[in-house]
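Lecture 7 notes: from sequence to structure.

We start with a single chain of 154 residues. Read the sequence below before looking at the structure.
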Amino acid sequence: MPLLTLDNPVFAAYVIAAALMVLKIMGQGWMTVYRMMHVKGGFASPEDLQPGAINKEPRPGQLDPDDYVERSRRIHRNDLENIPAFLVAGLLFVAVDPGLLLAQVLFYGFVAARLCHFLAYATKRSHEVRATFYTIGSLIVIFMALYVLGVLAL
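Now the structure, written as tokens:
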């Protein structure tokens, strides 16, 4: 059976997890935009102060950092630092034909860890709580990469 088809349940599990993580990255960007529009501030670039249909009355303070916006921006940055590695490692993992249960635990475990990380960050939990969920996701990605290398070394 070809590995990269939806007939392969491991690949199907990866596709679900990957699609959820792509939606997470894109959704976080939209959340940041929503927050900027909600507070009419926290903008990132000087050209954002040009009058337009959305920002009819720009003011210099709109470029000042706003924690409500910056928190979303930091969550987005963290997603961009972690999810792409999962997307690559997960696909490589599928290519070495692991067992279905192991793949599901790792793929869905990563998704759960990222969603818990988001909730911890969004609700201002301690660094230790966020770091716990980051560590779980990170170890999953590292495990998948090492597993691939181990299979190839055999």
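The domain at 9-153 is CATH 1.20.120.550 (Four Helix Bundle (Hemerythrin (Met), subunit A)). Keep this in mind for problem set 3.
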